[in-house]
Amino acid sequence: MIANAVFVATLIFLALGFWSMHELRFLVPWRSLILRTCLQSIALYCALLFANILGLTIWIERKFFLRDTGRKLRHLDQEIHTGQSELSAEILAQFGDEEER
Question: Any stretches that span the bilayer, and where are they (predicted)?
């Protein structure tokens, strides 16, 4: 999930970067002056922007792609412990001793 979020955030960040470079073409003659005086601020802003985009993509992925995960896992756990699942014998044979400790 994190890898997907980083990938999507990178795509969005690059798209915003290319769009802003296109919109700010009129600043090209002053590029060296701007970079010399404001490079640290620009880098900090870009890092914070990327972190916010990454947080937003993680939130969206958790909200929409992991919707009923807890309910599904609780249902599976109940099936295993009651013995109603075909997997319960295998799982209890492998992990049953660990639960008693």
Answer: 5-22, 42-60
